Amino acid sequence: MIVVHSEEGRIIQTLDGAVDPSVLTALDQQGVLYADIDFERDGNLHELFSRYYVADGRLTLRAAITPSVSTIEIRADGKDKAVIKGLPKPCTLMVDGHLVERKGGTITLTADVPATYRVAVEQWPLLPWSVEIVAT
Predict the structure, then answer these.
(1) Residues 6+ positions from 26 with CB-CB distance below 8 Å
(2) In the sheet that 68-69 helps form, which strands lie side by side, from edge to edge?
(3) Dihedral angle computed from the Cα positions of residues 9, 89, 61 and 27, in that order, rounded to the nearest 10 degrees
(4) More confident of the two residues 17 and 48
(5) Would you say residue 117 has pLDDT above 90?
(6) Is it true that the peptide bond before 67 is cis, omega within 30 degrees of 0?
(7) Which of the chain's termini has less CB crowding within 10 Å, N or C?
């Protein structure tokens, strides 16, 4: 299987079966990045596109972000807090729809308003991660 990918390794397209050499020549001439890989996952292309990327011409499994979350429930008093540790360093988080840049791997959340706050990280090539913190 030929896997067409971006410079950062995101899989864009696959060419299955026997690929005519003229197609590879055309890809080369256009500067398209691709890798010839062996992928036998019962035809599950969704898994290929979502869980893998190409690094150094090889299919590579995307690592999971595995932070610890001190609690998923806090009081909406502006003082009680949820601490998330073990985030990628640096990273950009989406906290309740707002981008938050972090240099270290920790963020502390407090709330003045009762609500459910979603914290999400999408940092390529890591798998996306999210948690909901409920402030009551």
Answers:
(1) none
(2) 68-69, 82-85, 106-109
(3) 0
(4) 48
(5) yes
(6) no
(7) C
For the chain, what is the mean pLDDT?
94
Cβ pair 116, 90 in contact under 8 A: no
What is the number of other CB atoms lying within 10 angstroms of the CB of residue 124?
12
- Among residues of the chain, what percentage have pLDDT more than 90? 86
d(CA 18, CA 36): 11
Prediction pTM value: 0.83
Per the CB < 8 A criterion, the answer to whether 73 and 61 are in contact is no
**C-alpha dist (Å) from residue 116 to 72, 74, 107, 124:** 10, 10, 17, 26
pLDDT in tens, 95-113: 999 999 999 999 999 999 9
Phi first, then psi: give them for residue 133, nearest 5 degrees.
-110, 125
CB 64 within 8 A of CB 127: yes
The token pair at 106 is 């920790």
